[in-house]
Amino acid sequence: MNRYEIHAVGLGGMGVIQLSKLITKAAVNYQGRIAVQTEAYSASARGGRCWADVVVELDEAERMIDYPKALSPYDFVFVLSEEAAGDVKKSDVKETGWVLWDSSIINKFRAAAKLPSLALPAQEMAIKEYGEAVIGSSILFGAFCSLSGILSKDAALKTLEESVPMRSADKNRAAFERGWGIGEKRKAEPRIAEKPEKEKKQAS
Asked: The pTM is what?
């Protein structure tokens, strides 16, 4: 089976569940794909640890998913808390995959230096540019769609528009475009960022 495996991990209230639902809805409702979403969170819904998986079937002839949870190594990993960052290993991500992490929440993420990753201060950008931290999910969603290539921009925007309050639709659309642009720029760079020149000299 040709599956695209997505794993999102973080704390309640940081957009883990929201991101997984946006991806699933866009894949099913506007891309005509088979997709399944699973989630789990601690007794403390806000601030407690949570995760969500999405599996998208890429083979249109298959039309089934025999196991609903994403399997490591993943095609795409969202990391939205420092605790979660400490658990992510290089072996958790495919060589062709991506790790997207919120650098306004996570200060230390050593494994990211060995992985094809994008550090995006989504929560900080959402507050400064759009006045609401919750809009950070739309920035991350835009970056995901750009980096992964499994959802069309049109499908993603239609899903976003029907999933957010009407009063904030314009802000969320702008935030999505912001994330999409950052993702496009990152794709043009080396998949694994090279070490700064200073670090290279010290290592030698």
From this structure: 0.91
